[in-house]
Amino acid sequence: MNFRLPPLPLRTLQAFFFLLLGTLFASTQACAEIEVVASFSILGDLAREVGGERVTVAALVGPDQDAHVYEPRPSDARRAGRARLIVTNGLGYDDWLPRLARSAGYTGTFAIASAGIRPLSMDKSDAHHEHTGHDERIDPHAWQDVRNVQTYVDNIAAALIAADPGGADTYRSNAARYRDELARLDAEIRAAIARLPPARRQVVSSHDAFTYFARAYGLRFLAPAGVAGNAEPGARALARLIAQLRREKAPVFLENINDPRLMERIRNESGVAAGGTLYSDALSIASGPAPTYLAMMRHNLATLMTALEAP
Ligand SMILES: [Zn+2]
Fold first, then answer.
1. Domain 28-186, what fold?
2. Nearest-5° angle of CA 183, CA 256, CA 209?
3. How far apart are CA 300 and CA 228, in angstroms?
4. Which of helix, strand or coil describes residue 260?
5. ∠245-246-247 over CA atoms, to 5°?
6. CA 96 – ligand 1 centroid, Å
7. For 130-152, how does the pLDDT look when each residue is reduced to its tens digit (9 = 90+)?
8. 158-to-87, 154, 204, 208 alpha-carbon distances in Å
9. Same fold flag, 28-186 and 196-308
10. Rounded to the nearest whole angstrom, what is the distance from the C-alpha of residue 260 to the centroid of ligand 1?
C-alpha cells in the first residue's frame, strides 16, 4: 500500500495560516474583556452602561425572574467563579451571591451597588419578610428611587476602575453620561406625578417593592403580598383591603415577577380598575417594554399615569 495525500496548494496553506492567526487574535480580544457577574437584571444593565465595550456582563437572575426565590444553577456558580468583578445590590437582597461565588473559587471583591444610600426600613406591621436577608427590617428595593441609582452607578464605576485601572477614563465618562440620563429621568418622574391631584396618588401592587419610589416621588402603594412577594394575606387583611379599595378606587397593578392570581382576585372583588403591569425587581426580555433600567422606569411611569389620570 503506497498512497499519498495530494500536496496542498501553497495558497490554501497561506489562507489557512491567516485564518488561524485571525482566530487566535479574536480569542485574545475576547479574553481581554472584563467578565462581570451581577446578581439580577437591573444591576446587569447598570454594569453594562458603565462598563461599555470593555466588559461582558452576566446577570444571574434574568429578565422577568424573581431574585427573592432564586435557586442557583451549576452554570451560575461557574460564571461567578471565573468573574473578574461581582456586583451585588446588598441590603439583604442577594446575600446568596457572595456565598455562591466563594464556593466556586472567586477571590475578587464584591461591589455593593447600594453602599452609601440611606436605606428605608420596612413597615413592621407587615409580618412576612423571611426572604429578605439578615436584617429583616431593611427594604432592599432601593433602585426604585432614581437618585439612589446615581449612587449605584458611582459604586459600580469605582469597582470597575479598581478591577481594571486601564479602563478608568472609559468608566468615568460612561458613568458621567449615564448619570445625566438618570437626572433627566428623575426630573421626568417628578414633573409627571406633580400633575396628579393628591387624591389620585394611591395604587395597589402585589409585593412591597415600591416604597423607595413612593417616598421619592409622592405616591402611596398598598402591597398585599409583602416585601418578598410570597406572603398570602390573611382573609381578614384581604377583606379590609378590598373594602378600602371600594371606597378609594385605587387602581390595581400586576408585576412582571409575581403570580397574578392574588391581584386578579382583589380586582374582581373590589371592582377597581386594572392598571397594567409594573416592573419591580427585574427587566423585561429585550423585545419587551422594559429591557433597560431607563426603559423600565419610563414604562412604569407611563403605566401609572395612564391609570391615575383616567377619568
Ligand atoms: Zn422584591
1. Rossmann fold (3.40.50)
2. 60
3. 19
4. coil
5. 90
6. 15
7. 444 444 579 999 999 999 999 99
8. 11, 6, 37, 30
9. yes
10. 15
Cβ neighbours of 252 (radius 10 Å): 24
CA distance 311 to 302: 16
Domains of the chain, residue spans:
28-186, 196-308
Cα 296 to ligand 1 centre (Å): 15
CA of 210 to the centre of ligand 1 (A): 9
Burial class (CB in 10 A: 0-12, 13-18, 19+), 197: exposed
Residues 183-218 have pLDDT tens digits of: 999 999 999 999 999 989 988 887 789 999 999 999
Cα 97 to ligand 1 centroid, rounded to whole Å: 16
CATH domain 196-308 topology: Rossmann fold (3.40.50)
CA 190–ligand 1 middle distance (angstroms): 23
Q: Where are the alpha helices (DSSP H) in the chain?
A: 10-32, 41-51, 74-82, 96-103, 146-163, 168-194, 211-217, 235-248, 261-270, 293-308
